[in-house]
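> example.struct
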């Protein structure tokens, strides 16, 4: 399968920035997880290095396109732009600074008037897991039948979805009554949004729920790639998530396999 030019570029840049970040972490040396000051230095070094690299590469490759990045000053140039690159140079800085693998480089291309949430290309890489996910490229997943296991939902360690937690017994009862699974619901705790969606695409979990909201650069590439690979992604109330807003905030999100979507959304 041939990738679009933008998808190929997003993939290339996410992989290259990921390799750069691995080098930054290796050169920085060991970090005590309890040393908050040292961890902040590593976070800042990673953010700065990846941002500088991606900004330079996009300026060279797509000089006429607008860019929205977590690590760059927002510009009103994007307000009327027909095309926008939404990037997170390092999603999951806490995990990156702890030497974990659940962090990502995320790049999405939004175009005005495109269907759904407006994405025409996207990629996110999980450098420490040697994985990359791209729109237009197949993924292989070995999914254990749901009847043989719990429904698995990936969530944030620091901000688990409180409303979903309150409904877990109800959801488990519905799953059992409908003959889907008698094994209930299980949480899986993962860092960055990209790493969370990577768990879905790899077949290890069924859904991702975020009730507290986050920025567009957190959501864009994971959502775009997930939907391109057959997942359902939207607000918890079913609305399409809109991008290139001001402020660039996403109130909530659910991304799920179609067969479990209605159970997870509630």
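> example.seq
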């Amino acid at each position: 399968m041939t990738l679009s030019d933008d998808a190929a570029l997003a993939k290339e840049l996410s992989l290259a920035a990921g390799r750069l970040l691995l080098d930054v972490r290796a050169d920085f040396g060991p970090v005590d997880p309890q040393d908050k000051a040292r961890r902040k230095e590593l976070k800042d070094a990673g953010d700065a290095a990846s941002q500088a690299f991606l900004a330079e590469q996009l300026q060279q490759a797509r000089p006429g396109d607008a860019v929205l990045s977590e690590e760059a000053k927002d510009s009103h140039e994007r307000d009327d732009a027909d095309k926008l690159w939404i990037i997170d140079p390092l999603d999951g800085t806490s995990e990156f600074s702890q030497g974990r693998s659940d962090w990502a480089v995320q790049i999405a291309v939004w175009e005005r008037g495109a269907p759904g949430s407006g994405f025409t290309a996207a990629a996110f890489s999980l450098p420490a897991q040697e994985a990359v996910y791209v729109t237009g490229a197949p993924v292989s997943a070995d999914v254990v039948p749901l009847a043989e296991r719990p429904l698995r939902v990936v969530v944030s360690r620091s901000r688990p979805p409180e409303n979903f937690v309150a409904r877990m017994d109800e959801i488990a009862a519905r799953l059992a009554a409908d003959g889907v699974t008698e094994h209930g619901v299980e949480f899986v705790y993962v860092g960055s949004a990209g790493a969370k969606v990577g768990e879905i695409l790899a077949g290890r979990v069924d859904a991702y729920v975020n009730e507290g909201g986050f920025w567009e650069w957190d959501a864009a590439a994971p959502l775009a790639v997930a939907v391109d690979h057959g997942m359902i992604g939207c607000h918890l109330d079913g609305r399409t998530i809109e991008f290139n807003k001001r402020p660039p905030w996403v109130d909530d999100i659910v991304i799920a396999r179609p067969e479990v979507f209605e159970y997870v959304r509630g």
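> remarks
The chain has a mean pLDDT of 96.
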